[in-house]
Automatic annotation (TrEMBL):
It holds the Pfam family TPR_8. It comes from the Bacteria. This is TPR repeat-containing protein. The lineage of its organism: Bacteria, Pseudomonadati, Bacteroidota, Cytophagia, Cytophagales. Keywords: Repeat, TPR repeat.
């Protein structure tokens, strides 16, 4: 009886000292803040072991996997979070981002649409969905999303850059020139934007001299594909 009682007391002490679900979550979030993704996952796994329906822990674990570029592994974790709580936009958005990284553009658009329907105020959805639509070569829809993103903040160089790419795909070189010019004005180190500017000036508008300036800038910034254009068309 005494041995059983001692064992019972020890069990009680261990149980009393076990961190709570909330404490484990906070520890995991702290590790996320420190970008210690592996340790963060270990804490979230302990939360999930205590409560398999803890959607916040599932989503957070998926984010930690995503940050390690384990996109394929992150997707089923986000799916589990969605199964637990399909009304939260975050796991839909995060799963869409993982699919975007894997170039599963169609599935990404489906998830972005769900996230957008659940919380239209989350403006990051517009730009990311625009990228997925660009990948699907659905240029007009992509342009709508890029314009929505620019309404929120017009000083986003990457949004202007990708809008320019969509405009080129949509056979609008003049519009693309404007967007690409905005992109390089906001970010003078965007070599790809200079390259597209140069190619568009030369091929669509016949502006050889100006195009060569842009192409040389692209090459100076490390965009080696510009070299063949420069060798063929520029002095």
């Amino acid at each position: 009886m005494r041995k059983l009682w001692i064992i019972g007391v020890l069990t009680l002490i261990i149980s009393a000292c076990s961190p709570s679900e909330e404490e484990l979550m906070q520890a995991g979030i702290q590790k996320m803040d420190e970008q210690n993704w592996k340790e963060a996952i270990s804490y979230f796994d302990r939360v999930i072991a205590q409560n398999p329906n803890q959607s916040t822990a599932l989503n957070a674990k998926g984010v930690a996997l995503f940050q390690q570029k384990n996109y394929q592994e992150a997707i089923p974790v986000f799916s589990s979070a969605i199964s637990v709580d399909s009304t939260n936009y975050k796991p839909w958005f995060n799963r869409a981002n993982a699919n975007l990284e894997l170039e599963n553009f169609k599935q990404a658009v489906v998830d972005y649409n769900m996230a957008n329907g659940l919380d239209p105020q989350q403006t990051d959805i517009y730009y990311n969905r625009g990228l997925a639509l660009l990948g699907l070569e659905e240029y007009e829809d992509a342009l709508l999303d890029f314009d929505m993103a620019l309404q929120v903040n017009p000083n986003q160089a990457l949004v202007h850059f990708n809008k320019g790419k969509a405009q080129l795909g949509n056979n609008d070189p003049l519009g693309a020139m404007e967007s690409l010019t905005n992109a390089v004005n906001l970010d003078g180190k965007n070599a790809a934007a200079y390259y597209l500017l140069g190619v568009t000036r030369m091929s669509a508008l016949g502006e050889k001299e100006e195009g060569c300036v842009d192409l040389k800038m692209a090459l100076n910034l490390g965009y080696t594909e510009a070299k063949s254009w420069i060798d063929e068309f520029c002095d």
